[in-house]
Amino acid sequence: MAMGAKPSPDKPTPPADMSLVLDNERILVVILRSDALLERGKVVDTILGLSSLRNAANQLYLAAPRLLGTSLDAQVFRNYGIGLILFDDRHIEEAVPPSPVPAATPQQPAGGIDTAVLGELVTLKSMYVEMERNISELREQFSLFQEKLETGINTPKPLTTADVLHEQSVFTNSTGQDLPPFFNNNPWLEVLSRRGREDHTFAG
Amino acid sequence: MDFGTSDFKFGPITCGEEPRIVNNRGYFPERNSVMYRAFEPTADVIVGEDVPLYLQSSEDLSSRLVYPMRNGIIERSDENAWRVVNALCNFGLKSFKVERDNGFQGYYVVASLSSVSPRYMYEHLMEIFKQSNEDGFVRAVTVIPQPFAVAIGHGVTTCVVIESGHGNSQICPISKYPVRTAQVALNRGGGEANAITSEILRDAGYGDLAAEETFVRRVKEAIGLVPADLDDATKEAKRSPKKLRAKYKVPGTRVEIDLGKDSWSRFLIGEYVFNPNHEIFESYFGRGMPRPKDVKIGETVFRGMLDFGDAIIMSVERCPVELQPLLYREVVLSGGNFNWSVPPRLDGVAVDAPTKIKLLLRDKGIKNVSVKMTKSPQFSVWHGCIIYGFAVPDEYEWDWQRLEGWLKLAS
């Protein structure tokens, strides 16, 4: 719109969010919002939806939050002629300009395989796998960070039964109970737990 | 289970920091007594908190009220004493609720006896647990010496433990195991401090009060002091009589003692415990106060007149040479007989037990010594028993040569 495009009188073809006209060319824009990060598969879903619009517009754009930009490979967008716009609260940038969509080619005879579509699918699949991996890592890091905040990094854990060196518990009716204070830092726990298992000469 | 000379301390790990405590005694009620007839059937031996309910007159006490371990040892043939121990063991086991539905398979019982207990006491105690295990309260039992338990409770694996109670004192080197061949026993304890206090009261004109054991013990605790050096302390006391005046009033009564110009004698009370060899005590022996003698009980000779410094050195020097410096660096004191305080104005003249031991050793040329009271004088034996029972593996079986391990009573 900053370059002079105007909203198209037609409604945008789903899943496009915006339909514009510039120099008699139809431009469709699919907007990927920030909350798409929280939904598993939403990002991939959106990108796959883009590919279905290839014949509905002369230029296709994906508009994505700048945060997501680091996980998107710009070269893939170039390869498929899809434009990429990155935005945040203050700035919008055309990261990858679209290539004009070529005129529709005659359809393959019935029963044949559209190799271009196949190729596109393979590419999208690899993009999907990589993004899934990135999102999983981010989720894991976030969980760890949350855990640390809740328990406190420097709070000493009370000594419990499981912490003590002891292969076979002599208590059949107590599990995980905090031990009395006189157990803390007592070297006898290790010495006594090795009774019968060390080679020693009796001092007595 | 800690079988002390006065108290029986017991309980599982769920007791936390402190065990349950009852007197280490039992009462044999007369079957014609009102209490016995009113509450039949009653046990042959009453133990625990119910004992005072059955006491009738003071004449009963000498024959019916039995303190089985007054001197740490029970005679093999003392049937009544063993019956009391039997009753206390059962009382201890059944005092705590168990959740059988929760998988309870019996306790691992750790009993603690005096380090000078002869082998037959171990045998007798284990037999008691075997025979009284009909209800399946005991999965396995073991017996460990009290000084060993003190070392465990104190958290030091190489040390000399000195345990001093009412009747005797034991010096026991520990190096991950008790060094049994190096143990030294003294035929001297808190009872001797009571004896010299009684003589001092007699000399001061309180002959009638001097015969009451409880009163004498209270006076000892109130006025008794341990001198850094007896001669210096005596001179200081005579030079500053007001500063060292020994007075004691029994709370809630008009009974009061005042040693006046003889207040210096309060230093004799502490000195006699640590070193009875000072010439001043000869006059007391001459007037009939029993001299601590060497006695043999079981296989152990209890030395009467050996001072604590010589006793520690004798014990340590029975250990390998490489171990000796390590032992001197960790001397641990345990037992009520080491509970001596220092009034603020008498610092330097009077000392506490650790300082006195250090001074005695220094006089004999042992310099790099660290002497401390055990962290929990009242409960360190019980703490040690709990840790032992928790940590020692189940498969470590009892061995009569090493006197350690679990004697399994349940499969």
Features:
heterodimer, A: 204 residues, 2 domains, elongated, disordered C terminus, B: 411 residues, alpha+beta, Nucleotidyltransferase, domain 5, 7-stranded mixed β-sheet, 3-stranded antiparallel β-sheet, 35% helix
What report would you give on this structure?
The complex is a heterodimer of chains A (204) and B (411). Chain A is an alpha/beta fold and 204 residues long. Chain A has two domains: 130 residues, no CATH class; 33 residues, no CATH class. In chain A, 31% of the residues lie in helices and 16% in strands. Chain A contains five helices and six strands; from the N terminus they run βββαβααββαα. In chain A, strands 1-2-3-4-5-6 form a six-stranded mixed β-sheet. In chain A, α1 links the parallel β3 and β4. The radius of gyration of chain A is 31 Å and the shape is elongated. With 411 residues, chain B is of the alpha+beta class. Helices cover 35% and strands 18% of the residues of chain B. Chain B has 16 helices and 19 strands. Chain B has a seven-stranded mixed β-sheet with strand order 14-15-10-9-8-16-18, sandwiched between helices. Chain B has a three-stranded antiparallel β-sheet with strand order 1-2-3. In chain B, strands 6-7-19 form a three-stranded mixed β-sheet, sandwiched between helices. In chain B, β9 and β10 form a beta hairpin. In chain B, α7 packs across α9 and α7 runs antiparallel to α11. The longest helix of chain B is centred in the N-terminal third of the chain and has 16 residues. Chain B starts with a strand and ends with a strand. The model of chain B has no long low-confidence stretch (mean pLDDT 89).
